[in-house]
Amino acid sequence: MKTGYLHRLADLIAPRLCTVCGRRLSPTEQVVCAPCYLHLPRTGFEHHAYDNMMARLFWGVVPVSRVAALFYYEAHSDVSNILYDLKYHDHPEIGVAMGQLVATEFQEAGFFSGIDALVPVPLAKVRQRHRGYNQSRCIAEGISHVTGLPVVEGVVLRTQFVKSQTQMYRWDRLQNVAHAFEARHLPTLKGLHVLLVDDVVTTGATMTACARELQKAEDVSISMLALGFAKS
Ligand SMILES: [Zn+2]
Question: Using CB atoms within 10 A of its CB, is residue 101 exposed (0-12), middle (13-18) or buried (19+)?
Fold first, then answer.
């Protein structure tokens, strides 16, 4: 990654710190320092993107092509701290940086071959206004920087403002988001292979609901990418 003069200058004035260990980042590091990055729990799913623990969540539920997350996600872990900062501490740049990291790793595994467009899982308008950005959109932007794939928004909208998922049981969560999305402008997706992008996948309910809507487009294929996968 290029590091310009302005970046180096900004580092002198306000040094960027590793989200995990708090050490100062070098100009080429982003979000997490190299030693910490090496120790984050990788899934390796991108190397068997058609059959892995996350892909199996969708078997018999919704037709999907490739499915992978970069890291395993556990509560109170380094990975959850990074994603929490992205989501709740006004750090959209973490999403872009993590998007670039996941794209660089997955590209080597051929994960993006044949994919035409990146579709970030949308937030409800109310939530996005409150947060100021959609973290999935930030991740998709980072992926786009590396792969050159376009980010397509507006083909699926979140129509319902759902309750926070964290305090709900699995079945409730599935019901909660099942009808939360609505497809738009479907002819623009005709014949395309779309990659759905989200920050964390837990039950797969959100991805499923989103994919079902996108599938209303003619001859569309769907793959899925997340930064974190929570084993439930
Ligand atoms: Zn560190």
Answer: buried
